[in-house]
Amino acid sequence: MIDLxxxxxxxxxxxxxxxxxTLEEHAPNYPTHSKFYHxxxxxxxxxxxxxxxxxxxxxxxxxxxxxxxxxxxxxxPEAHVTVDRVPAANLIxxxxxxxxxxxxxGENVPPDFIEKWEKEHGxxxxxDIVLFNFGWSSRWALRPQHESYVTDWPGITMKAAEYLLxxxxxxxxxxxxxxxxxxxxxxSPIHPRVLEKQxxxxxxxxxxxxxxxxxxxxxxxLKIRDGSGSPVRAVALV
Length: 238
What we know:
By secondary structure, this protein is α/β, with parallel strands linked by helices. It has a single domain (13-28, 59-237), classed as Putative cyclase (Glucose Oxidase, domain 1, 3-Layer(bba) Sandwich). The protein contains five helices and 13 strands. The strands form three sheets. Strands 1-13-11-5-7-9-10-4-12 form a nine-stranded mixed β-sheet. It has a two-stranded antiparallel sheet with strand order 2-3. A two-stranded parallel ribbon has the order 6-8. The two termini are 24 Å apart.
């Protein structure tokens, strides 16, 4: 039985860090994905009773999660899990933030960096949600000032991804377009390998520099039937 009074006390005392980019028109997006549109539908400015907008967007708009089905085809039905079938608990848990701001465009984090981080800060454990802080979110800007964000970002090597898979983490997140650098996406991306193991990928995070080494992470995707992913409102409790 959960001690609700204790949880209420802990939640009131916690500082909430918003890790989500704002969804708005002209925000950066992966070049092959459709853009975000926010169109006025009803308004009291035009004599109607209430204000509402219609949203048109890609499942991978803004801060979002990739479901396994994003890269795993239905030829592998056990691994082809769509976002509506991803357990909500998979994106609620202990987060670990790795400071990778010394890695530059096109560079990739190796496994020995993670091992060194663990020796200095503490072990990454099964079920953790591991966030890589490249400092890339500082480049987030609306089009046409978005080029430096969507060009040649850093990433994570396959060996580093394999190391985290062996630890049975729940999810891996980055403050860039992808945990795969552009070169890795063209050659040997970690996306299929990680998603096949049902480890979720979170992209376009922000404010990671405000986090301690470990914290509570929460993000809930929209329950989109047969969806390959979904925008999330990701937050940390510290």
